[in-house]
Design a protein that fits this description.
heterodimer, A: MetI-like fold, B: mainly alpha, MetI-like fold, two-stranded antiparallel sheet, 2 strands, about 0% strand
């Protein structure tokens, strides 16, 4: 077990390392440097500037200097705003984390409930409705859903006010982010729940006279949860990338919209920093969900 | 066919034939040999199953309607996807943001004067272009990108997976570590990153033909798909080959001196082709998702060329006044993705040997 954990953690570290390398070297491959503007500084000034930002050193060395700075929490400054990127990430990630966290909770909660209902009412009306709904939901891209929700509930009906920086209106962004993972979890829960319900220990539990709700919650659902846990990693990745468009649509100043504006402004240090930050988050989420999955299920053997 | 040979005593090495094995079959036994159902091929049997699945049939119908429309519409509709509407050779500045099936003032005058104007089925956009033809071209682009990207992933994954699975041992271990690492990369972020960079790098080189029309972003999408999306396919192919490799017929082929390439092509791939095909079919919607996502973020096809994602993105500006401009591309993306998903599921139920019976 320890061997697997060590292996898995090593893989995650290597992945983060590779991501940072890809990010750094591809960004360096872009033609033109930061001081090649129309008003080019004199060669002397340029040399001083390059020495100041280590641009005169070989690229490999620059990369390790950049990595060292990241470990110190220094992502450089934004080309567009001139602000320290780390503080921008801190501020905007607080908003994104709130919305993303809520989306994860909603997706998990409702997905598990709907999935269990579908499994328990197999081939009856609730099951069919839920599966129909979840099939539809997996076909709607998050940006389409976000724009449609904005159109219907904020603009046409006026029920929900459009996002404002100080407001606490999380409803629409959270729905747009959570719908797809929720539908996926619903289908996942249904199939694993059906699998669990057909096991011998469920029959044994009924035979012992255990109450139905107790069988469902204590014996079936707990076992059905295990495959859902493996999905938490990919779900985090989906929600993080989804936040790029959802935050842009609702004009939320989160990390996702910072990333997108970074792309439109060609703000390379910003793109680099947000990519490395988001990618690290995704890798950690994947790692955690894999480790928890292996740790809680005693039936999985380690080789 | 019962035969009673317990009573006959004979030596172990005796060649004497047991006559009870050769009695004529009874009528009943003969009837058991009759073929009750017609013999079918694997493909025909699968198609029959597929046609019984109402959801799959529905999605086939939807997809064929969409495909026929995008092929036929540019022939019938007299507008081009980047053509600004003009009436009788004069540019029509009033044909901006028209609602579906309405005409601008100039067009109305022209119609009243006896002229003929082809209706704007989906209206027009903010730059006086016919919206229907733009949606048609957008669908073309999105579908082509989806198909081509999945094809690319299929080819690379197939090659990588077959080599890794067939050779096995250290090579397999090494190749699968590469796959593990690529698999754990957050694909969307890398795609965005590479699109940004390749956009800058490729625009210096310059391209020709269809790719120039689609723009450098499309090339980077294909490159990225080729680099990242094949890993799922490689894993699948490798797993299949590892199982099939154990079969006796592979051993037999090897023992008569068949080369690995021939064994993979003739004996292994035909046995896992349906699984591979189905997973390619399921890859297409995810490629379309990715393309529309990138177009929405502004990293999609080059400006005058539309794609469903970029149309949806452009529609956000006048959302309040012209919601139909969002609805058309949005509905088509959803329909395509939904029917491809349903069709893929149907194909899997019908053709996947592991799920058959």
């Amino acid at each position: 077990m320890t061997r697997y954990f060590v292996k898995r953690i090593l893989l995650a570290v290597v992945t983060i390392f590779i991501i940072s390398a890809i990010t750094f070297f591809t960004m360096n491959a872009i033609p033109g440097g930061p001081f090649n503007a129309e008003k080019a500084p004199s060669p002397e000034v340029k040399a001083v500037l390059e020495a100041r930002f280590n641009l005169n050193k070989p690229v490999i060395q620059q990369y390790f200097l950049y990595l060292g700075n990241i470990f110190k929490g220094d992502f450089g400054i934004s080309l567009k705003t001139g602000r320290d990127i780390m503080s921008t990430i801190k501020d905007s990630f607080a908003i994104s984390a709130k919305i993303g966290g809520l989306a994860i909770v909603v997706a998990l909660g409702f997905g598990l409930i709907f999935g269990s209902i579908a499994a328990l009412t197999r081939n009856k009306l609730p099951d069919r409705l839920i599966i129909f709904g979840s099939t539809l939901a997996t076909a709607v891209p998050s940006f389409v859903l976000a724009t449609l929700l904005l159109l219907v509930f904020s603009i046409k009906l006026g029920w929900v006010s459009v996002w404002s920086a100080s407001g606490t209106n999380y409803l629409l962004p959270v729905i747009s982010l959570a719908l797809y993972p929720m539908a996926y979890i619903t289908r996942l829960t249904k199939s694993s729940m059906l699998d669990a319900l057909s096991q011998d220990y469920i029959r044994t539990a009924y035979a012992k006279g255990v109450a139905k709700w107790k069988v469902v919650f204590k014996h079936a659902l707990r076992n059905a949860l295990i495959p859902v846990i493996t999905y938490v990693g990919p779900m985090t990745a989906y929600i993080l990338t989804g936040s790029l468009v959802v935050e842009t649509v609702f004009t939320i100043g989160g990390l996702g919209s910072k990333f997108v504006t970074g792309i439109t402004n060609r703000d390379y240090p910003m793109i680099m920093a947000t990519t490395i930050f988001l990618a690290t988050l995704m890798v950690i989420a994947n790692l955690l969900s894999d480790l928890i999955y292996k740790a809680i299920d005693p039936r999985i053997s380690f080789d | 066919m019962k035969h009673d040979n317990k009573n006959i005593k004979k030596g172990i090495l005796s060649m004497q034939v047991d006559p009870s094995l050769f009695i004529p079959a009874t009528e009943e036994e003969k009837r058991q040999q009759d073929v009750m159902s017609q013999s079918t091929t694997f493909f025909r049997d699968g198609m029959r199953k597929l046609m019984k699945n109402p959801l799959a049939v529905f999605s086939i119908i939807v997809l064929s309607i969409i495909i026929i429309t995008i092929i036929v519409a540019p022939i019938i509709v007299p507008y081009g996807y980047s053509e600004i509407i003009s009436v009788n050779g004069v540019r029509d500045r009033g044909a901006k943001n028209l609602a579906p099936f309405t005409y601008s003032e100039m067009e109305q005058e022209y119609i009243d004067a006896g002229g003929k104007v082809f209706p704007h089925i989906f209206g027009t956009d903010a730059m006086c272009r016919d919206y229907f033809i733009r949606v048609v071209y957008g669908t073309r682009v999105s579908l082509l990108v989806g198909l081509f990207a999945s094809f690319l992933a299929l080819i690379i994954g197939l090659l990588f997976g077959s080599i890794s699975g067939y050779i096995g041992g250290k090579v397999d271990l090494f190749m699968m570590r590469i796959v593990d690492i690529i698999y754990s990369l957050p694909d969307m972020l890398i795609i965005i990153l590479l699109s940004v960079v390749l956009d800058q790098v490729l625009s210096g080189i310059g391209t020709k033909g269809i790719l120039a029309k689609l723009g450098t972003n499309m090339i980077s999408i294909f490159i990225v798909f080729g680099l990242l999306y094949w890993v799922g396919m490689a894993r699948l192919v490798r797993g299949q080959i590892l199982t099939i490799k154990q079969n006796e017929y592979v051993l037999a082929a090897r023992s008569i001196g068949a080369k690995p390439g021939r064994i993979i092509r003739k004996h292994i791939l035909p046995n896992c082709i349906s699984v591979i095909f189905i997973s390619t079919a399921l890859q297409i919607p995810s490629a379309i998702f990715t393309e529309s996502f990138l177009s929405f973020v502004g990293l999609g096809v080059q400006a005058p060329m539309p794609s469903l994602g970029s149309l949806a993105n452009a529609a956000r500006e006048g959302l309040q006044s012209y919601p139909f401009k969002l609805l058309f591309p949005a509905i088509i993306i959803c329909l395509i993705v939904l029917s491809l998903n349903l069709l893929g599921d149907g194909l899997r139920d019908a053709f996947d040997p592991r799920l058959r019976k």
